[in-house]
Design brief:
Layout lengths: L4 H10 L7 E4 L2 H11 L3 E6 L5 H4 L2 E4 L2 H11 L3 E2 L9 E2 L2 E6 L3 E12 L4 E7 L6 H7 L5 E5 L7 H10 L4 H20 L2 E12 L4 E3 L3 E4 L8 H4 L9 H8 L3 E4 L4 E5 L2 H13 L6 E4 L6 H12 L6 E8 L4 H14 L6 E7 L2 H10 L5 E2 L3 H15 L1
Parallel strand pairs: 14-16, 16-17, 17-18
Antiparallel strand pairs: 1-6, 2-3, 2-6, 4-5, 7-8, 7-10, 8-9, 10-11, 10-12, 13-15
Helix pairs in contact: 2-4, 6-7, 11-12, 12-13
This protein binds guanosine-5'-diphosphate and manganese (II) ion.
């Protein structure tokens, strides 16, 4: 789960990471009031779940109340396009009004789970700020790394070593090492999968301060932090994915034209390969799981055909724990309830397969049943060609 900068900065403050005073604002008047309260100048910052806001015009320094009003009016409720949003951009619903900091230097500090090493990678660079992605691509050596064994935790010398490798000394080195330790405590304490401070600015007195805050939380750890689950912003997520999560379905929207309803992540991946192999492209990943009920299947099927990109649906089920008759009932209920205008190819195998086929055949809905995977693939290819 991603959260906004203003939410992440509150958590940073809880863990003792220095941030500038700030207030979120949802309207132009709130933005002006926040700036008056904080004192000018302020930075007006668009809150969206994407980076690159500075280059996209979503981060603006305002020296007067009138400027705050003007900038807030321009940014709020309008789309902001950055290199991470796609051409349609994201509508800005919230601003962060923050006391402007005097920045002498911009560092980068980030932490991610390194799955291959089974450790936490801490990354830092002197070349922080809006061009960090280019730096990582063109001069990867400029990104320094320390790996943390999660069973041991961050040892203080690792934080100091990183500060010294950054070329820092004295008060600045101590400050940065303290922030590395605090960010690591936050990372573990909140079950984060990514935490990033870019830029980690050094002010004119040599004191570090987090100017930006990016935090992704591990969805599988959220049950331990009910107060964090409330930070979710559904406006920032794909509506079909939100609906799927609400009924415990594992659904990810993709950009192809064949909607897939499959049980088991392995079979789902193999099915996507098969679709690609016959020259079509999957419109989604949907794993209904082993213990799906008829209601979950129905919901999943509805989500699939609600996607305007879907030109054909492919149901590929191996009935183990999920029985084929349960699957068939859910699909038939959904197909009858909606105006089904795309071909549906079904391949069933496994527990209660005969009962499942019987339910499909008697339903009155024109399912195209396949005898095996190869047959299914041909029928999917034919259906997509027919639609085109
Ligand atoms: P991003 O572009 O989405 O990463 O947004 P950031 O919050 O990182 O802001 C982009 C850039 O704006 C930063 O790298 C800074 O150079 C600049 N910036 C942001 N806040 C301040 C501030 O308070 N003072 C100054 N001088 N620059 C700022
Ligand atoms: Mn940034």
């Amino acid at each position: 789960m991603r959260i906004h900068e203003y939410q992440a900065k509150r958590l940073f403050a809880d863990y003792g990471i220095p941030v500038a005073p700030s207030r979120p604002a949802m309207s132009v008047d709130e933005a002006v009031a926040a700036a008056d309260e904080l004192g000018l100048p302020v930075v007006v910052k668009a809150q969206i779940h994407a980076g690159g806001r500075g280059k996209g015009g979503g981060i603006v320094l305002a020296k007067t109340s009138d400027e705050v009003r003007e900038v807030a009016d321009r940014i709020l409720d309008a789309p902001l396009v950055t290199h991470q949003t796609g051409p349609e951009g994201r509508i800005v619903k919230t601003l962060l009004i923050e006391t402007a900091s005097r920045i002498a230097d911009e560092l980068y500090l980030g932490m991610v789970v390194d799955r291959a090493r089974r450790e936490i990678a801490v990354m830092a660079s002197r070349a922080g700020g809006v061009d960090i992605e280019e730096t990582a691509r063109e001069t990867p050596d400029a990104i320094l790394k320390e790996w943390i064994d999660p069973t041991i935790g961050l040892r203080p010398f690792q934080a100091f070593r990183l500060a010294h490798r950054l070329g820092l000394s004295g008060k600045t080195a101590r400050g940065v090492a303290g922030i590395v330790r605090a960010l690591f405590a936050l990372f573990c304490g909140l079950d984060a999968s990514l935490a990033e401070i870019n830029p980690l600015a050094i002010d004119e007195d040599g004191a570090p301060i987090a100017i930006d805050a990016k935090l992704n939380l591990d969805d599988n750890g959220l049950f331990r932090h009910p107060e964090l689950a409330e930070l979710r912003d559904l406006n920032e997520e794909d509506p079909l994915e939100v609906e799927a999560t609400s009924v415990n379905l594992n659904y990810i929207k993709l950009d192809g034209n064949v909607g897939c309803l499959v049980n088991g992540a392995g079979l789902a991946m193999a099915t996507m390969d098969l679709i690609q192999h016959v020259g079509a492209r999957p419109a989604n990943f949907l794993d209904v799981g082993g213990g799906a009920t008829a209601e979950m299947i129905e919901k999943g099927f509805r989500i699939l055909i609600a996607d305007p990109d879907v030109e054909a649906v492919f149901i590929n089920i191996f009935g183990g724990i999920l029985r084929c008759d349960i699957l068939a009932e859910g699909v038939v209920t959904a197909a009858k309830a909606v105006d089904l205008d795309v071909p549906v190819i079904v391949r069933l195998e496994g527990t209660n397969v005969e009962a499942g086929r019987e339910i499909l055949n008697r339903s009155g809905v024109a399912f195209r049943t396949a005898t095996d995977l190869a047959d299914a693939a041909e029928k999917v290819a034919a259906a997509v060609k027919g639609a085109a």
